[in-house]
């Protein structure tokens, strides 16, 4: 199944935990794994703190500090920093499902990472029931 995500900023982390949980609920998988894939080259996914919004802000600030727009970049689109940030964050996450619920820590949220927005984006969510090996 797909989740649609609309981003409103050039660089932005969007909490998609509730959307992913709704997809898990629709899937009827009770115990297994939820695999989320971001099919974009200038976006990513990460799991991090959902309590203090300054954590998300600080992650974006750190990425801006780590990934500079270098004069030697050749990519014709001019968005190489977005591609580098995408690779740093990665494009997939796997979360266990137990009794139909994502097994995230109390302070964990799933974040779609936009690095070349604003845009309309998509995440693929695949839920797989674990085999019963009794
Ligand atoms: Zn590009």
Describe the SSE topology.
Layout: E1 2-6, E2 12-15, H1 17-27, E3 32-38, E4 43-49, H2 53-66, H3 80-89, E5 92-98, E6 101-102, E7 108-114, E8 120-129
Antiparallel strand pairs: 1-8, 2-7, 3-5, 3-8, 4-7, 5-6
The structure holds zinc ion.
Please describe what this structure looks like.
With 134 residues, this protein is an alpha+beta fold. It has one domain: Jelly Rolls, CATH 2.60.120. The protein contains three helices and eight strands, in the order ββαββααββββ. The chain has helices spanning 17-27, 53-66, 80-89; strands spanning 2-6, 12-15, 32-38, 43-49, 92-98, 101-102, 108-114, 120-129. It has a five-stranded antiparallel β-sheet, covered by helices on one side. Strands 2-7-4 form a three-stranded antiparallel β-sheet, sandwiched between helices. The protein is elongated, with a radius of gyration of 16 Å. The mean pLDDT is 97. The chain binds zinc ion (ZN).
Quick recap:
The chain is an alpha+beta fold. The chain contains three helices and eight strands, in the order ββαββααββββ. Strand 5 (92-98) and strand 6 (101-102) form a beta hairpin.
Widest sheet: strand ordering = 1-8-3-5-6
Number of helices: 3
Q: Which distinct ligands sit in these coordinates?
A: zinc ion
CATH homologous group name: YjbQ-like
Oligomer status: single chain
Largest sheet: 5 strands, antiparallel
What percent of the residues sit in helical stretches (DSSP H or I)?
25-40%
Give the mean pLDDT: 97
How many individual β-strands? 8
CATH topology: Jelly Rolls
Topology as a string of helices (H) and strands (E): EEHEEHHEEEE
* Gap between N and C termini: 30 Å
Q: What is the CATH architecture term?
A: Sandwich
Q: Give the percentage of residues in beta strands.
A: 35-45%
- What class, by secondary structure content? alpha+beta
User: In angstroms, what is the radius of gyration?
Assistant: 16 Å
Overall morphology: elongated
- Low-confidence stretches are none
List the domain count as a whole number: 1
Question: Would you state the CATH class?
Answer: Mainly Beta
